[in-house]
Amino acid sequence: MLKVKNAWNNHWKNISSIEPLYKNYGVKNILWCFDKLLKNEKFNKILDVGCGAGFYFKYFSEKGAKELHGLEFNIKNVEKAKFLNRNFNVKIIQGDVKEITKYYRKNYFKLVFSLGLIEHFKYPVKIINKLLNLVSSRGILILEMPNFNNYLFWRHNVQKINSLPFHNWWRVKEWSRYLFNIEGCHLEMIQTGDFWSYYSYLPKFLGKISSKLLDLEISVENKLFSKSGALAFCKLRKI
Questions:
Q1: Residues spanned by the domain of 165
Q2: Beta-bridge partners for 141
Q3: Which pLDDT belongs to residue 163?
Q4: At residue 223, does pLDDT exceed 90?
Q5: Whole-angstrom Cα distance, residue 99 to residue 6?
Q6: Residue 158: beta bridge partners?
Q7: pTM of the model as a whole
């Protein structure tokens, strides 16, 4: 655990500005997914859970968000995020996501998003429910998680992933089936990588049919795009 903590302490230490990061392919791909997932949506109050060094506050500030918040467990990341976003109206605090309702009011945010966080928890549904508690009616929760069926994870030294304390080694279709059963929200869209969008506008009771359709689409995507995108972005609408 100490090894992991030290790794995160040093992860962003050489980054001194947000601007160059927006030229990075990985960051651009995430912003592209945000564009797809949030097309025609407007938000005033936004929370980034597990915000790391706070790369995405600039994006949402430029989209017109008036109130930006970030929660991060690692104090070094909190310090770096505050420094990188010093020119934006952002409030970043250190805290544990398992106690998130102590820091923020229920039903307060129009958008809550969390990138690469919930796969580190043994029981992700508990974390998802805590995040949903913070989302206002008809608001949106966006979750990004790795698609461990993707060949990129095996090509680029999967041992690095295994060095972290815990991962749910799920594929995108396993994540999606999981999310279909979350109470109080509707899974509207899954965006994987640069290539694929999956829309689920079926009623809740047709979830099994929707899941079968996803199986079919993923199987096609596997043949076309090397086992689909490395990352899966899921858009849930609170109902």
A1: 2-238
A2: 112, 236
A3: 45
A4: no
A5: 23
A6: none
A7: 0.79
